[in-house]
Specification:
- With 272 residues, this protein is mainly alpha-helical.
- It has a single domain, classed as MetI-like (MetI-like fold, Orthogonal Bundle), CATH 1.10.3720.10.
- Helices cover 73% and strands 0% of the residues.
- It has twelve helices and no strands.
- Helix 4 packs antiparallel against helix 5, helix 4 packs across helix 10 and helix 4 runs parallel beside helix 12.
- It starts with a helix and ends with a helix.
Amino acid sequence: MLSRLIHSPTGLVGLAIVLIVIIVSIFAPFLAPHNPLKPHFKDSLAPPLSPGYVLGTDALGRDLLSRVIYAGRISLLVGFISVGISLFFGIAAGLISGYFGGWIDALLMRVVELQLSFPFILLAIVVNSILGTGLRNIIVTLVLIGWVTIARVVRGEVLGVRNKTYVEAAIATGVSAPGVILRHILPNIITPIIVVGALQTARFIVAEAAVSFLGFGVQPPTPAWGNMLSEGRDYMFTAWWLATFPGLALVVTILGVNLLGDWLRDSLTKAE
């Protein structure tokens, strides 16, 4: 995989972007030139390259560069935690459904289909109406929409390997169902799981930004790329930088994650 990465320009670009975003987010307190929450009213709406403000300031005089850097923490936190929890539930549901079949499979798949029938925005509105707004509830919403996709992928892969010779041999030698699932099936379907997890990360980062843009996610003054875009839409013709730079940060991050996900898919497929 490392040799393929070296000879894959898109994979290297994707990995570089993701690593840069992660490093910048982790070391945000040391890299951000200003406090992202502290207003400086006398410097309100300063344009990019103003003295002391590389990307300019917002309507309250807060440094835009610092806010973009800190907002990356929110996006990565939501993306990775949501994907991790979704993978746990999705893999468990898919393995159980695909291996045992019968009424268990029918019941789990009906739950999945019911979940898929809810539009994401409607589900976000319902969850936030019941539980309130905030980072925790964004993660809950994303997990609710994410585990079903993973469950369907895992179930399909399990159905493809359930009747393989090595699985039948394990069953014939008396290996228990959990042993067959964890030792003989799961390791052989890990490739699509990794690929789906990587691509779901990009999807969740965009979804978090969309929810925050609509006002159901991270609330001001906490910086998030979504709510920064929402704040900047009122100044599109007078202070273009308020929406441009958070939008570019979001686009570049999603591009990096998708390029890395595509490389993982191609590399793992060839490895098989």
